[in-house]
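Dear colleagues,

As part of the handover before I leave the project, I'm documenting each prediction I ran so the next person doesn't have to rerun anything. This entry is a single chain, and its sequence is reproduced below.
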Amino acid sequence: MTSSGDRGADRGATTALEVEGRLGLGGMAETFIARRRGPGGFEQRVCLKKILPHLARDPELLQLFEQEARLTAHLSHANVVQLLDFGSDEGQPFLVFELIEGTDLRILLRAFAAAGEAMTSGLVAFLAQELASALAYAHDAGLVHRDVSPSNVLLSLAGEVKLTDFGIAKAFGSPGLTQSGMVKGKVPYMAPEYARTGVADPRADLFSLGVTLYEALAGVRPYRGRSDIEVLESIARGVREPLSKHVPNAPSELVQIVERLIDPNPDARPPSGAALLDLLRGVQAPPTARRILGRHVREHRRASAPAEVAPPAPEAPYEATERIDSGGTMQLGVQRPAATSSPMLAAAHDVTRTRLPSADIVAAPVSAPEPVPESTATRTVYEPRAPSLDAADETADVPLRRPRARPWGLVVVLLLVCIVAVAVVIFRVAR
């Protein structure tokens, strides 16, 4: 596979792309880690995005894919994932993005929840400012993202915050590529006016951002239900718990801004990302917020890395356990396999992404020796066990019974008792 080089570079030069592995799988496209090579030893790891093979001939999806390339071709912002190239391989189009090493906000929030913790209001304020800056840039360029959600917020190991996946972005006022009334996006983060009409403006992006920030602060989404229909009804009616109920100690300015963003009435929200940035000037994020966020990302990545298991000692291939139970029976332990760790691929993420997955490889559980009852005397010996007495079953426990001493004293006593008893009977009969 070859691409035509960086945007703005000499279009006569070609760059080879070598796929290393899959990153994610979505409803329309899949992403891969790829290595881009060029003349003079040029090499770069990138994210390769391709339409799914069975959809590659769908005209509407091809238009959406090409639209993503056109709309994001000129986006260059610190908080937006950079598009590097657009090309075709045997008639199948592909996009090349910068690769973000880290995780996404969705996974990090789940890690916080699993640990019984929550993201601090200072970090949420930092997220709000970074994402508002990205949306302000996109809105000023005439674009509405239409799919702002935690899975599309990428976090780097250095604490950078980047908005990705402009796959269903739309230019203001341009005719849609889908039929009237058709919407695309994630229901829990979807503005009610967009869900109802299929028409989105910058305020729809701010509603999605508000739901994302509410979830980051409270650990739950503001609008919930047992089905997508119930969620949409809750959004339309504005049925939710106040954010202050979940985080009573959060700064009131931040809470009020988030509550305003998730208002079902679009007129109650700021008109654009730039207006939101102006509101956020009164909310101070810690000066070390980026470093703190990067530390959380790195800690999560280390915690989800495969466990390292020491190899078994070659001189002790057996774990022979000698047990003596209350019946006087001695049993030799069976041969046990050495503990191993077998890495295996985790399930692919349900959303395409341009990051290195932090938890795609997990370790298989390590087998532990069987527990021995506390009432049993145990002695563990690291040495090969004696050959089995039964050649047909090399792993069976071998019972070895100790020889019992014959009870001669008891026999003599019983014999004397019998003789005395017989003598007494004879004596009585004789009288």
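Residues 408-430 form the longest helix (23 residues). Residues 6-13, 175-181, 312-354, 357-403 have pLDDT under 50 and may be disordered.

All the best with the project,
I.
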